[in-house]
Amino acid sequence: MKKLFLMAVMALATVSSFAQHAVGTFTIQPKVGLNLANVTKGDGDIRVGAVAGAEFEYQVSDIFSLSAGALYSMQGCKGEVNVEGFDVDATVKLDYINIPILANVYVAKGLAVKLGIQPGFNVTSKVSAENGGTKVSTELDGIESVDFSIPVGLSYEINNFVIDARYNLGVSKIMDGSDSKNSVFQFTLGYKFAL
């Protein structure tokens, strides 16, 4: 009898630690993480940057929720540029305030598949380079002020901690006269608070 009781308690503890939030509730999730960003139609390398912000979530049903948030996202790329006849390493910094609006489908306890739209607003657009110990930074002209992407990802929640992995597929051009779009892999850790 003791073994049966102990097994029942352990099973309930496991279920409660993986349970979704109650239907009709709101949560807020501050989050911080890492971007692996690049741009399409180029030969640039990945720019590693930070991402931070918060997302609100409304639990529509046991398996479906809607979320929206605001994230500061460091994007762009790294690569070589030619300055006065010299090839120098440069970093293209394209930082945005992104507004992810997502549908979340819980395929298992705590495990959600995410898909949505994400408008972004450019707040930094510059290129930084170093040549012979001299650092140069200049603003980029022609960068579009609004960016659109499609975020697709997975998240896993345990005890209100949320690990989230997304790919943000750029659908709008980042600048005039170029077909390049943003391409960002994003990994975050957050914590959900009930409202």
Give the biggest beta sheet: 11 strands, antiparallel
Structural class: mainly beta
Query: How large is the count of helical segments?
Result: 1
Q: Count every beta strand, where a strand is a DSSP E run of 2 or more residues.
A: 11
- What is the fold named in CATH at topology level? Porin
Total tally of structural domains? 1
Average pLDDT reading: 88
CATH architecture: Beta Barrel
Estimated radius of gyration: 21 Å
CATH class: Mainly Beta
Quote the beta fraction: over 45%
Order of helices and strands: HEEEEEEEEEEE
Overview features:
195 residues, Porin
What do you see in this structure?
This protein has 195 residues and is mostly beta strands. The protein has a single domain, classed as Porin (Beta Barrel), CATH 2.40.160.20. Helices cover 9% and strands 67% of the residues. It contains one helix and eleven strands; from the N terminus they run αβββββββββββ. Strands 1, 2, 3, 4, 5, 6, 7, 8, 9, 10 and 11 form an eleven-stranded antiparallel beta sheet that branches. A hairpin with a 7-residue loop joins strand 1 and strand 2. About 5% of the residues have low confidence.
